[in-house]
Design goal:
The chain is of the alpha/beta class. The protein has two domains: 180 residues, Rossmann fold; 124 residues, Riboflavin kinase-like (Elongation Factor Tu (Ef-tu), domain 3, Beta Barrel). It is built from eleven helices and 13 strands. The strands form two sheets. A seven-stranded mixed β-sheet has the order 2-1-5-4-3-6-7, sandwiched between helices. It has a six-stranded antiparallel β-barrel with strand order 8-9-12-11-10-13. A hairpin with a 2-residue loop joins strand 10 and strand 11. Helix 8 packs antiparallel against helix 9. It is elongated and about 75 Å long. It catalyses: riboflavin + ATP = FMN + ADP + H(+); FMN + ATP + H(+) = FAD + diphosphate.
Length: 338
């Protein structure tokens, strides 16, 4: 599996066509932000980390694309990578809802014209608010309209606020639209709340806040073969978890897409205590599926959580529990697809 780099040689613009699904990309193209082919059309811009691209983010982006269409402007999301806290608070150990590749893909489904990814470094964090506005918003993105949250701060030490941005707008010739506290509070969702839900295994809440099934991407690797011996062969998923959030240990109902066909199953995240495991594994068992998946990249969608992982007194007891898990998972899937 290709992991996402934490470093860029320069910021990039992502070109894409609107998509109908979060799980497909069409004609996605990456170019340098300094390339001559950057469009000359003025833009409407919103700014943020957008980790998870949850329903609150989606509300902002719908406002953005509507404004762009009304004024014949290009719609741009300006986002940052790595997450600012990963750079400024290196002991924070923050896990993200999306890799940068996943964030691009989800954003690409929302009808935007461009995603501008600004590498967040300590040097960038030292940039004054005015320099950021002039060099990025005005010179590179040719901004004519900015849509921003009511509590947004930016520039060195996050010293500038919405009033400062409006003053820069007067100076450089762009308008500023504030997303009210009421609009934000009406959604009542945040990336932090979603991380909390996933860390506690609350898939239902995470899905409701995200507006789509949470997922991980990984490569199928060979395991120890315990599952096959128990009539539950598993695909062992290797995930780059250096900054991607993996939900709480336990057993989950899942789906994946193989050769354009949706397959369902259940997955264990944990230490395999019945077999005295000494490291965390992610093992997926797909129902009525017998193809060899070794070496393939898979996306695993989390649909529901069945139970905690626990140690069983015997392998037979574990097999009996897995059969119950399978029955419960298949019942959930049948209801979901009804």
């Amino acid at each position: 599996m290709n992991s996402d780099p934490l470093k860029f040689n320069s910021p990039v613009l992502i070109f894409f066509k609107p998509l109908n699904s979060y799980f497909y990309k069409k004609n996605l193209k990456v170019i340098s932000a300094t390339a001559q082919s950057i469009p000359k059309t003025p833009s409407v811009v919103t700014i943020g980390t957008f980790d998870g691209v949850h329903i609150g983010h989606q509300k902002i982006i719908r406002k953005l694309t509507k404004k762009a269409a009304e004024h014949h402007l290009i719609s741009v999301v300006l986002t940052f990578f790595p997450h600012p806290r990963m750079v400024l608070q290196q002991n924070a150990n923050i896990k993200l809802l999306n890799t940068i590749a996943e964030r691009k893909e989800i954003l690409s489904a929302l009808g935007l014209d461009f995603i501008y990814i600004q590498e967040f470094t300590k040097a960038f964090a030292e940039m004054s608010a005015r320099d950021f506005v002039k060099t990025v918003l005005v010179d590179k993105l040719k901004v004519k309209h900015v849509i921003i949250g009511y509590d947004h701060h930016f520039g060195k030490n996050r010293s500038a606020n919405i009033d400062d941005l409006r003053a820069f707008g007067t100076e450089f010739g762009f308008e500023v639209e504030e997303i009210s506290a009421q609009d934000v509070d009406d959604v009542a969702v945040s990336s932090t709340k979603i991380r909390t839900a996933l860390n506690s295994g609350d898939i239902v809440t995470a899905t409701a806040f995200l507006g789509y099934d949470y997922y991980i991407n990984g490569t199928v690797v060979r395991g120890k073969g315990f599952g096959k011996k128990m009539e539950f062969p598993t695909a062992n998923i290797s995930v780059d978890a250096s900054y991607k959030l993996i939900p709480k240990n336990g057993v989950y109902v899942i789906s994946s897409l193989v050769q354009n066909k949706t397959i369902y199953g259940m997955m264990n995240i944990g230490m395999n205590p019945t077999f005295h495991g000494d490291k965390k594994t992610i093992e997926a068992h797909f129902f009525d599926f017998y193809q060899d998946l070794y070496g393939q990249d898979l996306r695993i969608n989390f649909l529901d959580r069945l139970r905690d992982e626990r140690k069983f007194e015997s392998v037979d007891a574990l097999i009996a529990q897995l059969r119950q898990d399978r029955t419960h998972a298949q019942h959930f899937i049948a209801q979901r697809n009804a």
